[in-house]
Amino acid sequence: MMHRSIQRLVAIGLAAMIPSVALAVNCDQVRRYLAAGRSVQDVADSMIIDVKDVQKCQQQPGAAQQAPDAANVKKMDAIEQKRLDTEKIDAGE
């Protein structure tokens, strides 16, 4: 028991010493969600990214921002829901 506590403290200490590396944000996906009518906050929440990252993607020049058709919006929503469900299962919820 004491050994595990020490291991956890060491792991936490090492993790704190490693500089955090921001994961790349998929701006194409962000722009697709925004083009589908989602709010900045909704996109940030569903992609589990910061609102500032969504706003940066909005400002970046990118592919033509065409509104996807309804079938593609449903497909994107289903993919996102599966990802969230998988995360919940992995987290033991």
| SSE class | mainly alpha
Low-confidence runs of at least 5 consecutive residues: none
Task: Give the SSE string.
Answer: HHHHH
Radius of gyration: 18 Å
Basic shape: flat
Overall pLDDT metric: 77
Total individual domains: 1
- Count of helical regions: 5
Distance from N terminus to C terminus (CA atoms, Å) equals 25 Å
Strands, count: 0
Q: Tell me about the biggest sheet?
A: none
Tell me the fraction of residues in β-strands, as a range.
under 5%
**Helical fraction:** 55-70%
Tell me what you see in this structure:
The protein has 93 residues and is mostly helical. It has one domain (23-91). 69% of the residues lie in helices and 0% in strands. It has helices at residues 2-17, 27-35, 40-47, 51-59, 70-91. Helix 3 (40-47) packs across helix 4 (51-59). The model has no long low-confidence stretch (mean pLDDT 77).
List the helices and strands and how they pair.
Elements: H1 2-17, H2 27-35, H3 40-47, H4 51-59, H5 70-91
Helix pairs in contact: 3-4
Question: What are its keywords?
Answer:
single chain, 93 residues, mainly alpha, 5 helices, 69% helix, flat
